[in-house]
């Protein structure tokens, strides 16, 4: 009986749970040319993979907030800044999130709609691909419909629901003749109570392992090199700094109140429950 109960509790904590807050970023309060934006208290970075992407605010009424035209969005509209395979990501290292939907204007380099192309949507967590799908049809071909924008709905993308998958980065990559991309009305779910599965917590390009999770205080951190970790509360306050050496390090967070904390290194971040 005790074994069964313990297994059930472990399975509960290993699974991902959350208390979600859905938000739609319309970019209307963001600064023109910015490579980041803030929504619902979370800072997102715009990562330019192929071509340069940032907040565009120079062309009023060329965006789409989901129901009407608006003024600001993400795009690669700089002079000569369009090419085949254009790609960008939206990423945060301070929070985990899920994506419900967003709108994309996919066109030729000169902005012409109706050309043949594809969009590949990839969700990643700590650099590990969690899902990837390519949309090949159904793109808006005229500005008379949704101001030229196409809805990318992750609740039903190619017949699959990806809106419940926890990520820290979503990447959009064009194929075919799509060389210009604009993104608006980014609807996502903030999960301040998200807890990663054991496998996700340990997944790291630098092979960092952190356990147990949850913990009453004792915390073991295994690293492949000397590292420095900063512990942040849900409000974003730095509450503790931990320095580790290569190998197994024993530390303790018993002095912190019960709750969910973000433990960040220079390249990775982890959700830890203090119980």
From TrEMBL:
InterPro entries: Secre_tail. It comes from the Bacteria. Residues 210-274 form the Secretion system C-terminal sorting domain. The keyword Nucleus does not apply. Residues 1-20 form the signal peptide. Keywords: Signal. This is Por secretion system C-terminal sorting domain-containing protein.
